[in-house]
Amino acid sequence: MILCDAGPLFALVDQTQPQHESIRKAVTKLSTPLITTWPCFTEAMYLALHRGGWVMQNQLGKLIINNMLTFYEIKITDYERLFELMKKYQDRPMDLADGTLVIAAECLGINRILTLDSDFFFYLINDSQPFNVINLHDLK
């Protein structure tokens, strides 16, 4: 199981992004479905709307329909931890979407993540375990 941040989702559907081809190749080599959270997907949808409109948003939607993407649902019991993480990493700062991915990692016991965000080299799962950030260059 692999977590997926908003950046790779957006790069996957926007062919003008420098990482588009690397992300596309990575997704074909990685086990799917990838796991994300609704805040990350919302962020990718927002970028897609402003960059390519409905056509690009539809491409993102097809990731769900084609079972390439699934969601970890943030629970009420996760909220306290989420805001604790955002406070802890306020110097980066940690946004809500990143916080939900850390929560998903903690709850699902996953440390692998597909991201373009260097902050995941600093975030810790359960305040102790680093993320295993997938290196796109290793997947070529």
UniProtKB/TrEMBL annotation:
UniProt cross-references to SUPFAM superfamilies, sorted A to Z: PIN domain-like
Any Pfam family matching the protein: PIN
InterPro entries, sorted: PIN-like_dom_sf, PIN_dom
Signal sequence coordinates: none
PIN domain: residues covered: 2-120
Protein name: Nucleic acid-binding protein
UniProt source species: Okeanomitos corallinicola TIOX110
